[in-house]
Amino acid sequence: MLSASFVQSVRKMKTEEIGFKLPLSALVKGKNSWGRYFTESTMISYISQHGVSFKLKAPVYPGHKLKLIIELPPRLGENLKLFIQGKVVFVEATRIQKPLQKVSLRFGSTYRIQAEK
Predict the structure, then answer these.
(1) Which helix (H) or strand (E) holds 7?
(2) What is the pTM of this model?
(3) Domains in the chain and their CATH numbers?
(4) pLDDT, tens only, 13-45
(5) Contacts for 65-70: CB closer than 8 Å, 24+ residues apart
(6) pLDDT greater than 60 at residue 63
């Protein structure tokens, strides 16, 4: 018979998200809060299998759809980029860097990895 603490720890592992504080360059594309298209370079501050966090100047709100092009580390391959879309799930104003906001994006179900020339 399995102990209750073992079962609880397995349940906790299933619900915890494994992510990384990994500084990766990215390009963000989408519509801002005023409905205008924008393209902005940023650095990924956190990434997991479900989503990503980064800072952004363009104002966006939860529910906005954005496209990301993330530069993958060179050890994975020469000029590899991850193309993925997602939906903004959280926006937080930053106190130190005033024009920036911290954006958390939940990944959609499709992506592609491609070498860019």
Answers:
(1) helix 4-15
(2) 0.76
(3) 18-115 (2.40.10.220)
(4) 445 556 556 678 899 999 999 999 999 999 998
(5) 65/30, 66/28, 66/29, 66/30, 66/103, 66/105, 67/28, 67/29, 67/30, 68/26, 68/27, 68/28, 68/29, 68/105, 69/26, 69/27, 69/29, 70/24, 70/25, 70/26, 70/44
(6) yes
Residue that is written with structure tokens 């800072």 in the block: 55
Q: Which amino acid does the sequence have at 82?
A: L
Can you tell me which residue has the tokens 């990384």? Answer: 20
How many Å separate Cα 84 from the centre of its chain?
9
